[in-house]
Every structure is written in C-alpha cells, then in structure tokens.
Specification:
The chain has no helices and 11 strands. It is an all-beta fold and 120 residues long. The strands form 2 sheets. Strands 2, 4, 5, 6, 9, 10 and 11 form a 7-stranded mixed beta sheet that branches. It has a 4-stranded antiparallel beta sheet with strand order 1-3-8-7, with no helix packed on it. The protein is 0% helix and 57% strand. Strand 7 and strand 8 form a beta hairpin.
Length: 120
C-alpha cells in the first residue's frame, strides 16, 4: 500500500502565504510525477501544479507567478509554496502521485486532502 500524507493547510488572509507538504510512503519503487489538485465547493477538481521526477513543472494559469512546486525525490516529498493568496484559492487541496508499477503500467494515488481557506 502507498500512502500520501499532506500538511500545511489552514486559514490565511488575502495576500498571505502558505506552504503545503506531501510525503509518500509505503511500497514505492519509482515515482513518475507528483502534484497538487484542488476542489472548491460546487466545482470540479482541477489541476494546480505538477512536477515530474526529472523536474519538469506545469501550472494552472490561475496560479502562475504565485505558486511554486518543488520536490525532494530522496524523501518522496513534494512542496507547494503559495504566495499572494486570493479568496478564489480557497479549496481542499489534494496531493497526487503517479507511480511506476509493472512495466507498461502506472498507478495513481491520492491524499485525503488539506483545507486552505483564504479570508478576512
């Protein structure tokens, strides 16, 4: 079994910053990519940012210039630094990891989510 554990969510004022952390543990042999998704009430889950094991990153247009994703491959950890937070960023943030399984297969895992609330 593989587990993803997130931390760092909470309440912050507009313009403030938070840093989310996600660590994968369990039967891990190779991680292809890790990333963050978020889901606000009444909306679909959307991609926030991803990073591959090689360091290639991808960001949603709404967070470019404000959020930075990074990784520590040795610790199977991905970080999301969130700056200049807006009320629109309020959502449950979910960590995601894609692991290599049997040759030719990939396995997708999700964390339980951490709530980020941006409000006065």
């Amino acid at each position: 079994q593989v587990q993803l554990v997130e931390s760092g969510g909470g309440l912050v004022q507009p313009g403030g910053s938070l840093r989310l952390s996600c660590t994968a543990s369990g039967s891990i042999f190779s991680i292809y990519a890790m990333g963050w998704f978020r889901q606000a009430p009444g909306k679909q889950r959307e991609l926030v940012a991803t990073i591959t094991s090689g360091g290639s990153t991808n960001y949603a247009d709404s967070v470019k210039g404000r959020f930075t994703i990074s990784r520590d491959n040795a610790k199977n950890t991905v970080l999301l630094q969130m700056n200049s937070l807006k009320p629109e960023d309020t959502a449950v943030y979910y960590c995601n990891a894609i692991l290599q399984g049997v040759v030719g297969t990939r396995m997708n895992y999700w964390g339980e989510g951490t709530l980020v609330t941006v409000s006065l």
